Amino acid sequence: MPVAPGVFPPRPGVYPPPPGSGPAPGAPAAPSLEQQPPQLYQFPGDPTYYIQDATGNYVPYEPLSPQPPQPPAPTPAHPLAPSASTSSAHHALPATHHVPEKPHVEPQPQQQQQQVPTVTATATDRSQFPNPFDANKPREIVQTYRNQNPEFITTRYTAVTCAPDDFVDHFSLRQTGSEIEMMIVITMYNEEPKLFIKTMQAVHDNIRQMLEDRQWGEDGWRKILVCIVSDGRTKIHEGVLVLLSMMGVFRDGLIRTKVGEQDVTAHLFESTVQTNFEGPPERGLVNNLTAKHKIVPMQMLFCLKEKNAKKINSHRWFFKAFAHSINPKVCVLIDVGTQPQPNSIFRLWAMFNDNMVGGACGEIAVEGDFWFKLKPIIAAQNFEYKMSNILDKPIESLCGYISVLPGAFSAYRYEALQGKPLEEYFKGEVIEKEGTIFQRNMYLAEDRILCYELVTKPGRSWLLRYDKESCAVTDAPDAFTELIPQRRRWLNGSTFAFLYAAANMGKIFTRSTHTFFRKVILGVEFFYLILNFIFGFFSLSNFFFAFSTLVGGFVELMRQNVDPTVTKKISWLPTSKNAGYTALRSILLMARPVYVLAICITFIISLGNNVKAARSVFLTVIWLFAIIAALMLAMIVMSTIAQLQLVGFSFKKLDFGGDGQIVNTLLALLSTYGLYIFSSLLFGEWYHPIFNQLQYVLLTPFYVNVLQIFACTRFFYLALPRVELFLSTR
């Protein structure tokens, strides 16, 4: 079986002694044990010779530096050998990547050559290995590095045996005590390697661009630490481990599941790399580049959690363990698969030059080219994202409170998170098992809780900001079976998180130290958010009322078209004298009960079915609502044109003929569709209002009816784990 590129096989056989350690010709017999130099160890794949010092650590051997005599030491476990636990896991690297379990003890550098027997090392010998341990990277990786400092050529492995909250009391990091300006955390679960490559490429390129700025300089990479937290050792994709091995970060053979009698909770790998990937991963054209190709160094920390405990626990490891040890100024949160665009991380960091800013975010955009974004489900999401970033985020940023900083791409001042914000944020781990229905739904949107607690932090006056020029692209669900469950979590979480924030909005005035003017602005913003929430709560009934009114008005317009004076002006509109009048009238009148029937079907299938199990029924309902939306759009256009012709509207004079009804109609259209177009063009965005707005309009009934009904019927499912498990297995 061929070896994967970038993962190097061990050197077989017994290894020769280091240069200068062999016996000279004609040398006397071997000296006594007291005169012998220390025991030497060498591990396959590692050209360095090691000795065991008085503290039990393995340090490189210097032949020219005489060492005090040592008795023969037991053979340590091979740092690259797989254990039974790791080799049995389904995620382990292929067998060709593993080093044999039997390292060899080297001949001792005595005055006379002597044969040293090979000592067999078992998997349990790894428990005798020091913790932490610095292992040399494969020679094939480090030989291309332009910087050969120890931090570049070694990987430190730490088997963490404590909870994240206790990490700083028992362990330390390489950078502990160093001045770290920014920590970037990338959270992942079992995502595909191409998503990991996209994120790592984007992060590296952003770091390289930051170093070009005068504020950072050429050695600015020393102030940046990239932290990768993977949720579950048996869950991570095998290909991602191979990629991390190619970078020189991950070493499968170092993993151990126990330290003495203590279970390992996380596997920590620390390394400074000078490698990255180049090329489009979706096409399989990825090259492993090295320092010769304008690669800047990256200080990396890879935390592989032993058990799967969800994303919020990964953030606990980052904030409570690693960030607590480093104490950075800014923490940037990125989900694997998200690609920060050029200079986006720098712009996000620059916002914290304002000492009042506690959190910031950029624009989240849908990934894809021109043609891909024409797909209805992608186009609707792209239009929704764009309008949120154009209409909602800027006004919220102006007020100082953004309802949510997306976890896929956001940044926080670490100082601002200390205390109450992080305490409330991490309650989600406990509430998931012991909380009420309200609390469990609320913590589906823990990011919103963190934003609220940050702005209302006692004794402080932190603000949240948004920068549209800081952008990150991410893949959007391209199937309704994926989109519906995602939006269920978003809707339920945002609904209950807003109710929590609105019920406690008085804390802005009582416990924060915002200025009086800022408190007034925040109060006005919350009043607007409450009105928006009420309108959204009744959107299902409002949408049906608008549809019913539109149908009735259009039928009445056709009925009035029997007047010769009216018919002359709108002769294209069907009348009772036309053959198509009866058919069109019947279709319109039947549309109302069909709408109600679609709502009833949505309620029924949402109550007792998994989305994938009822995929065909959901798609049928979505198509029904799309046809209804197209019918509404046609009636709006035809009714507006008919009203303009009836009043004798003139574009030259802007004369409405004294009819106030047509003025109201035009104002309604301009305040919706016109506002979308005008505001988008004002921000320099032209693609989505031209090429995506129609798809969004057709899927508006889906957003209003299907998503909200499905979310509302799942409020109580979080309190019934057996029911949730039953539905998920179905």
From TrEMBL:
GO terms for cellular component: cell septum; plasma membrane. Residues 134-176 form the Chitin synthase N-terminal domain. It comes from the Eukaryota. It catalyses: [(1->4)-N-acetyl-beta-D-glucosaminyl](n) + UDP-N-acetyl-alpha-D-glucosamine = [(1->4)-N-acetyl-beta-D-glucosaminyl](n+1) + UDP + H(+). It is found in: Cell membrane. The chain crosses the membrane at residues 490-509, 521-547, 583-605, 617-642, 662-684, 696-720. It is a multi-pass membrane protein. Its EC number is 2.4.1.16. Belongs to the chitin synthase family. This is Chitin synthase. It comes from Allomyces macrogynus (strain ATCC 38327) (Allomyces javanicus var. macrogynus).
